[in-house]
Amino acid sequence: EKAMSIKQLEILDKVSYIDSSILILDDIIDNSELRNNKPCLYKEVGIDNAIIEAQILLSEWKNALISLIQASSIKERRQLEILEKLNILIINIYEGERIGKNLAQIKDYSDQLIEKYIDMVTLFTGSHIRFGLEIWQLLANKEIDEELSKASLHIGIVRQVYDDFEDYFPNHHEPFSDFLSESNRLPEVFFKKQITRARKQE
Q1: Which of 13, 56, 77, 101 has the fewest CB within 10 Å, making it most exposed?
Q2: d(Cα 65, Cα 199) in Å, to the nearest integer?
Q3: How many CA atoms lie within 13 A of 179 on its CB side?
Q4: pLDDT tens digits along 35-46
Q5: How many angstroms from the chain centroid is the CA of residue 87?
Q6: What is the mean predicted confidence (pLDDT) over 99-120?
Q7: pLDDT 10s digits, 185-202
Q8: How far is CA 168 from CA 109, 113, 116, 125, 173, in A?
Q9: Global pTM?
Q10: 3-class DSSP state for residue 16?
Q11: By C-alpha distance, which of 153, 140, 21 is closest to 81?
């Protein structure tokens, strides 16, 4: 087998930059202190510089995907599909972040809390897994498997729910951060529901 060139390796490395970009913004929005036992980037360089770094990483990720498209022999229709899904993914991630930020402003329990939480994790983590998988299928010159897309969307949702519950254990990247910042992730929504129910029974 022919070894990949340095340029090809660099392109593949940059394909993962979207994860770094998302985490930088996520840490800012959640007011996190640590990421992988190190201070979050915005704590070291400031919020403005961290946002700029996240945008640079996102742009380099997009350029890497475009380079992969140009180097491939996939049909033009699929090339356009990749770019379309790329844009939808980015929009969904930012919309999910916005919903997450607004969630933290809600003080009392209502059924709307759960609905907004599901919307957030569907757009943010669910879309990340789903569209990432669909883009790679298209890059491989394959038709998108709709059943696989549905499964990957739900895997993303389950992964985010699992992460939110992990926040209550010491092996999490920043234990109890969601609780202390009143982020209204699923465990906190359940707490508020029980408190509201108990108050009504008094």
Answers
A1: 77
A2: 53
A3: 13
A4: 877 899 999 999
A5: 14
A6: 88
A7: 888 888 888 888 888 887
A8: 20, 20, 21, 20, 11
A9: 0.80
A10: coil
A11: 140
How far is the C-alpha of 84 from the C-alpha of 171, rounded, in Å?
Answer: 38
3-state secondary structure of 36: coil
Q: Coil, strand or helix: which one is 39?
A: strand
Cα–Cα distances in angstroms (integers) from residue 162 to residues 157, 168, 169, 187, in the given order = 9, 11, 11, 10
Q: Are strands 34-35 and 38-39 parallel, antiparallel or unpaired?
A: antiparallel
Helix (H, G, I), strand (E, B) or coil at 38: strand
Nearest residue to 89 (alpha-carbon basis) of 149, 146, 159, 33: 149
Span 19-68, pLDDT tens digits:
889 889 888 877 788 887 789 999 999 999 999 999 999 999 888 888 88
Task: Compute the distance between CA of residue 12 and CA of residue 94 in angstroms, rounded to an integer.
Answer: 24
